[in-house]
């Protein structure tokens, strides 16, 4: 939730797991607890017409969880935004990801959400699958646009060492053409194809991986990128009050045990000096507006611009109105650029 003071909370985001696995009754309990402990019973959260629905309240869902009954139950909750993990509209690639849903279920879920009055829907897509072609990726983009959603997030598939996908890919390397990941040039072409198609469809490319129709930027995620304080509830959840960042214990049993004892088990760090500067670089530079150099001290601004100079000369970064931002050319190699601007 952001911001951290209850009377200024502007967004609520149910995610970081699979909240659509909860029943509607369980979601009522969750919102009732938020109302009681955070808002001091100001709102009637179990009413669809609650004044809290003027804020942005998002729930993450799996497409196959959005049954007619679940969608109808959302009418009784203050949820007004849904983020759906579509990932791809190719059933074979969904099986590769071990996802339960099918491409058809994504479209069905959107229809059900529209039928109960949800007018702000976001879908997540992935690209860079083994054996995926540019044409395959274009099909996924068009399928997402055909749903007429308000927001789209897209990420390049990353296969981390030690994961089941990593072991599967390593075991089939050289034996299966469809187990070969796209090379960097194809991934770059996929990314720029995404940008061009989304902008042509009227979407604003407002963050490296995020696109929105006018007026439908994710207010919650934008709060993170803008340094707005937030409260995180649950195991492994992070909180930030403007000066300190804290994170709850990740082990669910330890978290529950602590709550039952009235103890919050967490670690924290003070955000100052190099840490604050690095946060600004790695978060603000991801956005369309970029980083406001006026918010830096003279020493950090000098350091930043000194290290940014070669990227500016190469057309990867630009300065305008005292803001430093990535150019179109720099977007795809943003991780490399950010790594050179932070202080280690």
Report mean pLDDT, rounded to a whole number. Answer: 92
The largest sheet is: 7 strands, mixed
Q: Roughly how much helix do the residues carry, as a percent range?
A: 25-40%
Order of helices and strands: EHEHEHHEHEHHEEHEEHEHEHEEHH
The whole-angstrom Rg is 21 Å
Q: Might you state the CATH topology name of the largest domain? A: Transcription Regulator spoIIAA
Reconstruct the topology from this structure.
Elements lengths: L10 E4 L9 H14 L18 E6 L6 H6 L7 E7 L3 H6 L6 H13 L5 E7 L6 H13 L4 E6 L7 H9 L11 H17 L3 E4 L2 E3 L6 H7 L12 E3 L3 E5 L3 H9 L5 E5 L2 H12 L6 E2 L5 H16 L3 E4 L2 E4 L1 H4 L2 H8 L3
Parallel strand pairs: 1-2, 2-3, 3-4, 4-5
Antiparallel strand pairs: 5-7, 6-7, 8-9, 9-10, 11-13, 12-13
Characterise the protein shown here:
- This protein has 344 residues and is an alpha/beta fold.
- The chain folds into two domains: 220 residues, 2-Layer Sandwich (Transcription Regulator spoIIAA); 69 residues, Arc Repressor Mutant, subunit A.
- 39% of the residues lie in helices and 17% in strands.
- The chain is built from 13 helices and 13 strands.
- The strands form three sheets. The chain has a seven-stranded mixed beta sheet with strand order 1-2-3-4-5-7-6, with helices on one face. The chain has a three-stranded antiparallel beta sheet with strand order 8-9-10, with no helix packed on it. A three-stranded antiparallel beta sheet has the order 11-13-12.
- A hairpin with a 2-residue loop joins strand 12 and strand 13.
- It is globular, with a radius of gyration of 21 Å.
